Structures are given as structure tokens and as C-alpha cells.
Amino acid sequence: xxxxxxxxxxxxxxxxxxxxxxxxxxxxxxxxxxxxxxxxxxxxxxxxxxxxxxxxxxxxxxxxxxxxxxxxxxxxxxxxxxxxxxxxxxxxxxxxxxxxxxxxxxxxxxxxxxxxxxxxxxxxxxxxxxxxxxxxxxxxxxxxxxxxxxxxxxxxxxxxxxxxxxxxxxxxxxxxxxxxxxxxxxxxxxxxxxxxxxxxxxxxxxxxxxxxxxxxxxxxxxxxxxxxxxxxxxxxxxxxxxxxxxxxxxxxxxxxxxxxxxxxxxxxxxxxxxxxxxxxxxxxxxxxxxxxxxxxxxxxxxxxxxxxxxxxxxxxxxxxxxxxxxxxxxxxxxxxxxxxxxxxxxxxxxxxxxxxxxxxxxxxxxxxxxxxxxxxxxxxxxxxxxxxxxxxxxxxxxxxxxxxxxxxxxxxxxxxxxxxxxxxxxxxxxxxxxxxxxxx
Length: 440
Fold this sequence. Notes:
- The protein has 4 helices and 20 strands.
- By secondary structure, it is mainly beta.
- The protein is globular.
- The two termini are 22 Å apart.
């Protein structure tokens, strides 16, 4: 999904400046405008793995290799009354292993799930960002393409509206949200059960309001949903189709951040239960979720997110999530419950301050109707082996990112996936990758 909405510059929400990557060119922190860019290339491959059968949406068991490429230009200009206009242009090309099918925790967050969209540039974000001071005190902030003020009010209300990525602002985690310098798996860089509103590329139209205080924050977002699961077009009738997102963030100490997330998606969603009943009645050859969509259905979910800054540049983090599993997975991936834990360490202790090494584990699960739908031969927008011997999809990922020169980074990454697509008849599979990233 293009780097989980291309969050190359995602920062830990909250007060105070955050760590920022080195760049090819310096950026003036007191400027009235912003201009930067990034490029990310990921080459992935896997060898042959055990697979007694395959379906239409299976991860292919034969050895394969794939290259993805994403570049983004970030621009912004300061307007009167503490307002910024931000515009990003992006291109996502290449492909993913098996065209990004067959895994709930897919291995490359930069991949667009519909390769037919091509690599032509598109407007990824265009939004207005306004900051309203709620007191006289200010603190330092880290300028970046999502907000380039060097100081912000300690107590403030921030309002954003336009085209944006919800994952830039909700469920952000300093150690596990960036496919450009950290992990690349969908369900490690994001909460897999957070079916956040987005088109195929990972963006939506939304309005977000956030209240920030010294030790806590509250943010709420209202966003458009796609017309169909994994679709590129939006349903603009908000009376029947929309997404509400609410997150509370608490910072009890300078080293600890806790977040609690809740969301509700309203859309024309399919019902697994109805698709299963239709198949068992003998009316169709296999269950078809697309034939059982109805408007104004609601899918709810919750998530928890924690990160802790330990000593000597080490960080640990974790997430847990759940969503109701009777309506189809719609916008992100096919996960109904998930848990993950991991951490990373800065290379400062071995005189490589911009290097980082990390490891994380994620375990994803399906609801009973979702797994029965797949076991009977149904297809989701990502999964469908034709049958299913269910087990949780477990993923272990590790990486080393090396800073080469200025804004140039290289990384090695490995992912061991048990029960790909929740199927214990298939796998395990080892996916390996080399990544090159440039910040301009």
C-alpha cells in the first residue's frame, strides 16, 4: 500500500522534537516553505516452499523475485494564521511477490495491490494544516513534510483536511511505522486489524482534529471509504459510507507512549455469513462475498499501541488489534485479530549513529466466519487458496539499515512466515530483501 501511505517521515505523535533521518540536502527549519523528496527501492525474493495445492489468490510456491519502487516529492507553503498547505506527488511502480496476493501480512508495504494502475505520478496528499494555540507556551518540533514548523504551542488544536493517509496520524509508532528505514511487513509496520479507510494506494479524503497537551493527546478523523473493497474510487455519500477514527495517546513519562484506537467503517460491505449460507444452499459453485454486499453496513475495531525508549538507543514496541469478523475485510488487509512485539537499536553504540537494527514478531488471526468462507473456496481481495487448513499466520522479521552517505541508506531484511495465508498445509516461506532508500 505504498509504504503504508508512504510514511517515510512518520513521527511519534506528541510533544517535543523527534529523531529525523539524514538527508542529501539540508532543510531550513525557519523557512516559510518546504521541499523534499524520497526514493525507495525494494528487491524481494523467496525460494520454493511446501505447497500441496494453490488457488487463485495464493502466494506462489515456485521461486520468484520482485522489485518495487516508490518516489515522492513533498512540498509545502506557510499561509497566514499558522496554516500550511501541503502537496505531495508520488509514483509507485514495480510489483510485489505474487502480485501482493496470498499473505495477510504481506512482505512489502510499498506495493500497490493493483499493478494495473501503473507507475504514472499521482497526487498522494493535498491538505490544509492549521494550528490553533491554546496557551502562550511553545516547544520545539521536528520540521517535516507533514508539518514544517520548528516550534509549536504546547497546548494546541491541530486541524487537517484534504487528501491524506490516515496511517500518517493514527496508530503511528516510532519504532514500527516506516517501511523506508525500518520494517517492511504490512502487519508489523501497521496494526493488521486496523482496516483504515483508504483507496488501493493507501490514501483517502478526510478531516482530522487533534488536541495536544503536554502529557496526552486526543485525535478524531472522519474519512471517505472506497466504493468496493480495495477499490480506487470513493463513495462520496457520507450518509451511507464513511469512517470514524478516534485515538487517545498518553505519555506518562518521556520514555513511554501508550495509544488506544477505535474505529467504525460504514460501507457497502459483503457478509461472510450470507455468502456461506448461499453456497451451502447449493445456489453457487463457491462462496462469493461480492454478491452479498449491502449499503450502510458497519465494521468496528479497536487497537492498542505502546512504545518505550530504553537505554543506549534501544526501543521496544507492541500492538494488539481486533475487528468484528462477520463483514468483509475492506480497505487494508485480511486480519481480524493481531498481536505484535518488537524493538530496534541505534548504531550509536558501535559508532554508526544513523544505522539501526530491528526485529519483530506478529501473529495474525481470522474470525470463524472469515476462515470458513476461505475454507469453502471463497476469495477475499488478498487471500484464497481454494481450501484452508486454518492456523494463525505468524511472521518474524529482522532488518539492518546502514547509513551510507548523507541521505543514502541500504538495508537487508528477512521475513520467516509460518502458515502463509493462515494455511498450515503451506509453507513456511522465507522472504529476503535488499532495500535502497534516499532522502533528499
